[in-house]
Amino acid sequence: MIDNIFINKFRNENYLLSPRINSLSDHDAQVRSLFSIITLDDTNEFYSYKKIGKHSINEFQASLSYETWEDVFSNNDDDTNIISYNFLITFLRNFYACFPKKRTKTMQNSNAWITTGIKTSCNNKRKLYLLCRESNGPKLKKRYRNYCKTLSKVTTAAKKMYYNNKLANLNNLEYHKNNQ
């Protein structure tokens, strides 16, 4: 492995990792496809994102295929730094043209009731699902169904508790407001 890439799976769950057999060397590439990229601005009132869908990916691939790549391969110096720089400039020009940065106001977190435990349980549920998909074991499928039922009950209880606390705090504010 030459390059290490770390991603936050909780922040961007819409990605696909797949091998790419290039038949050029004894090493295969790993392709990470992002379906949306979200970055927060410093102001925290707006956030920027790049919407990446099938249409924009196809447009990006087409624009790369129409490139002549003369700037990359015409260098007689064989200086890898210059070749890499020219490749990067050409690649990024096409990338930014096909995936323009969009800016919008931040959204209120409607899932504030989701706890770390629920996130962990959801990840475990996904792992169980993947195991069930690959296996035909009835015990594993029964365990997965029971896990889903339990997680559903826990999330329902967490939502109720969160919104009940919100209402209780609102009622306390109203009570103190009226008694002053």
Structure description:
It is a single chain. Helix content is 53%, strand content 15%. The protein has five helices and five strands. It is of the alpha+beta class and 180 residues long. It has two domains: 15-105, no CATH class; 116-178. A hairpin with a 5-residue loop joins strand 3 (36-40) and strand 4 (46-51). The model is unreliable at 38-43 (pLDDT under 50). A three-stranded antiparallel β-sheet has the order 3-4-5, with no helix packed on it.
Attribute tags:
180 residues, alpha+beta, 2 domains, three-stranded antiparallel β-sheet, two-stranded antiparallel ribbon, 5 helices
Compact overview of the structure:
This protein has five helices and five strands. The protein has helices at 54-65, 70-73, 80-98, 116-134, 138-178; strands spanning 15-20, 29-34, 36-40, 46-51, 102-105.
Structural class: alpha+beta
Q: What low-confidence regions span 5 or more consecutive residues with pLDDT below 50? A: 38-43
Query: Mean of the pLDDT scores?
Result: 77
Principal-axis shape equals: flat
Number of helices: 5
Order of helices and strands: EEEEHHHEHH
Give the N-to-C terminal Cα separation. 67 Å
- Fraction of residues in H or I helices: 40-55%
Strand content: 15-25%
Largest sheet: 3 strands, antiparallel
Q: Going across the major beta sheet, what is the strand order?
A: 3-4-5
Radius of gyration, taken over Cα atoms and rounded to an integer in Å? 25 Å
User: What is the total domain count?
Assistant: 2
Number of strands: 5
